[in-house]
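Input record (one chain):
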Amino acid sequence: MTKIIFLDVDGTLIDYETKMPASAARAVEEARANGHLVYLCTGCSKAEILQRHLCETDGMIGGNGAYVESQGKVILHQGLSREETKHIVDWCNARHLGFYLECNSGMYCNAYMQEQGPDTMVRYSLGKGADPSKAKRSADDFVNEFILLQGEDLYREDVNKISFILSSYQDHLASRTEFPELIANTWGGKGEEALFGDLGPKGITKKHAIDVLLKYLNRDKEDTIAFGDAKIDISMFELCGTSVAMGNAGEECKAAADYITTDVNDNGIENAFRHLKLIA
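The corresponding structure, as predicted from the sequence alone:
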């Protein structure tokens, strides 16, 4: 029986310098040639994924579940309302926090993000084990992808979720109080240190999005395999028939997985695909 494979992106399919190992691309190509379906399942929105120039897949789940696409067809798209976006934008600006709006059309930021983003992304990359000599370039490349908007131009209607830099963990706690109707997460560096907060629609998770996609495909969860490296991936582990944590994953992610493969840069995807007999 063919399988449906869900791949987280950062730290799973690609490393923390945003590079995809050749072995991972090769494994995905061979698995699809063997009849398996492969979907990205990521916190990134479509614009960010398109900038990564990744391997061919059968579709994607983006925005941690806000967007589902299969074979070019949009199955689900549930983002923030203009009013919710305005509230978050004004709240972040009042606290002088850099943020970016994650949309399928692009990634849009405020001026604080341009100031604060490079140093924060260097901390993120170094905390995940990136080569120090490459971390600054990787961070600059990431921030340079953003489109600067100001004033009411930031009050958009096409936002999947919003990520913002934490000046301290208190900013995350304050966001949970300020936006009880939304889902508040954190993400970051070593040990999943909280460097960023993010806010998205309530009820939107990777688990929910996979369930929507399986109903569309008329497939059972027993046919699914999920790959991830962080706490945010545990929700898809709960639904999928088999779950795989990367060797570089956080401890909570590893504890929730059925199988632990090697690190992303130690042929983790290819080794797991072989172990699970997806490829020869």
